[in-house]
Structure formats: C-alpha cells, structure tokens
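Attaching the record inline, Q. Sequence:
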Amino acid sequence: MSLVDIAVIVVVTLAGFMRGVTGFGGALLMAPPLSLLIGPVPTVVTALMLETAAAMVMFPDALPKINKRVLLYLTIPACFTVPIGGYLLVTLDALIARKVISAVVVVFSLMMLAGLRYSGPHRPSTSVILGTVVGVLLGATSVGAPPVILYLLSGPDPQAVTRANLTVFVTSISVIGLVMLVFAGAFTTQLTVSALLLCIPFVAATWLGGTLFARMSDTGVRRLALGFMLTMGLVGLLA
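Structure, as predicted:
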C-alpha cells in the first residue's frame, strides 16, 4: 500500500466522521484533498459513490418523512443538469477542475460558518432554479448539498423533515450523477473497486460520528467541522 493510498483512506475516514457529525459534510471535506491526491474525475466518482452508500443507509427511514412537493421541485431539474456538470468535469483541464472544486468548498464553508440562510419564500420557481444550479455543481464537483441545506433550513418544516429531504435529495442526484459518469467513461475497474472498498471506512466513520454527535455541543461541533472543511478547501485552492 502506497503513501497516497494511506492518505486517501485517512481523508475518507475523516470525511465520514464529519458527515456523521454534521449530517452533510462528507463531500465538502474530502473533495479538495482527494482532487490533489487522485485527480478531479476520480475524486467526484469516489465522493458520489461514498455519499450514495452513506445516504442509502438512511434512505428507508427518511423516505416516509419527506416534503414531497418541495423535494420534487428541487430534484427533477437537478436530474437534468447533473450531466452538464459531469460534462464540464470530464472536459475541463485537471488543474482548473481541481481549483473549481476547492473554490466551491471554500465559498460554501464560509457561507455556512457565517450562518447565512435563504430568507425568501419557498416558491416552486425558486426551488426549480436552485435544483438546476445544484445539479451542475454536483456533477462537476460532487459538492451539491450546501446550497440546498441553506435553502431548506429557512423553511417551516421540522428538522426531521429537512434532514429527510436532504437525504433523499442527495441520494437521488448522486445516483443520477454516477449513471452519467458511467456513460461518460469516467469509471474504470480499478477506480470502482477502490471506491467500493473505501465505503467500509467511510460508512463506519459516519456511524461513529453520528453516535458521538449525540454527546457533543451541536453549535461548537458544527463550527469546528466547517472550519476544518474550509481549511481543506483553502489548501486545495492554494496548492
């Protein structure tokens, strides 16, 4: 096992732990360092596979709790625009793609650290526009959840419904993204096997983070996690 392999496992494990703590932070944390270690396209493939594996564990419990109206307006346009993001990913220069991934992480980490929230009403037109933009972001960078988080947290739904909406949304568009990347030729046998093996530490760390979260301060832990994600994004952007 090479030093790069060990570094990838460490990054994925930390990302899984942060996802368990925050409920959303896996791709935010892992995308910048992985893009440095293995390249942008393998990073997006790996991150989408890991996020899908983790979300699928929560999917059966989340599905009955969703707000169907809000979720449909977000998910349907995103499904159509994920391929646009995927096309950008596989056609952009690797260095530019890596910088874009890191920049997206930095921007959304700062927004979430600042406590920004969407303040307008949840109109169908707003949800459709957001879903369209998020689909492109997810396909190109694997980081698609933060804008939806900022949007849904401002709504009237209970926290359990918001978390369920996020789980189902991320699972749905991640699966679409993976299918698109298969047809784009981004998958190789070695990459697929590697990502499947990485699901083990990622899901285990997600479970551990979720277990420990119940014993920790919500605000303090989330700020620490987002600060760490911001640091990873800055490292990827400046490296």
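DSSP finds ten helices and no strands in the chain. The mean pLDDT is 82.

More tomorrow.
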